Amino acid sequence: MIKLTWLSHASWYIETKSMRILLDPFFTDNPAAQVSADDFADCTHVLVSHGHFDHVGDVAPVAAKSGAQIITNFEIAQWFQEKHDLSNVLGMNIGGQIDLPDGTLKMVPAIHSSMLPDGSNGGSPAGFVLKLGDRSVYFACDTAFFSDMRWYAKSVDIVVLPIGDLYTMGIRDSLEAIKIIEPKIALPTHYGTWPPIEQNAAHWAAAVRAETDAMGIALEVGETFEV
C-alpha cells in the first residue's frame, strides 16, 4: 500500500506501512499550502530534490520537529548540517540507491538548476524512483523532458511529472514523457502555485487519457491517492 497526498506546489506526502515521507516540503511562503511544518511530527524521511527555496523552505523545521532523516544530494546534505545544525542527514548522488524500511530509493537525473537560497552550491538536481513493496513511483521533480527517463523509470506504476512550464516541462512535454515511460498512472505536480505556472490540470488529465495508455489523475490540494 502506498498513499500519495499532494500538498500543493511540488510537495508530496508518501505513506507506506512504516514510513511517512515528505518530498520537497514548502509551506510557509506557499500561497497554495493548507498545512504547516507542525503537521508532520510523525515524518520519518524528507526527500529534497534540489536547492531552490520552493523545495527546501520547510525542510529544517520538519526535520527538527520530527527527527526525520533528510535524504538529498551531497552538497545539500552538507548545507543542512552546517547551516541548520541537523545531523540525521544522508547525502547521496545521481545513480545511487539506498535501502529504506519498506523498499528502495534511487536518485536519478533531472535537468534543472539547484542553487540554495543563500547562494550556496546546491549540487545536481535529481528525481527519485521509489520501489515500495510491489509498487514503484517515479518523482521526476523539477526537470525538462529528456529521453533517458525511459531507462530510469520504464513501466513504473505511478509517475509524478511537473506540468507548470516556464521553469520545468509543460503539458505537452509531460505527455511525451508519459509515452516513453509507460506508467499505469500519471499525476501532475509543480503547477498552480502562482500565475506563471498556472495550468488546467483537468485538461491535462483528459489529454493523458486520450493520448497515452496511462490513467491521468489530477489531485486537489490535500487529496490522497492510494495504490
Description:
With about 230 residues, this protein is an alpha/beta fold. It has one domain (about 5-225): Ribonuclease Z/Hydroxyacylglutathione hydrolase-like (Metallo-beta-lactamase, Chain A). Helix content is about 20%, strand content about 25%. It contains six helices and 14 strands. It has helices at about 55, 60-65, 75-85, 150-155, 170-180, 200-210; strands at about 5, 10-15, 20-25, 45, 70-75, 90, 95-100, 105-110, 125-130, 135-140, 160, 185-190, 215, 225. It has a seven-stranded mixed sheet, with helices on one face. A hairpin with a 4-residue loop joins strand 2 and strand 3. The termini are close together. The model has no long low-confidence stretch (mean pLDDT about 100).
Please describe the structure with a list of short key phrases separated by commas or semicolons.
7-stranded mixed β-sheet; alpha/beta; 6 helices; 14 strands; globular; 27% strand; single chain; 227 residues
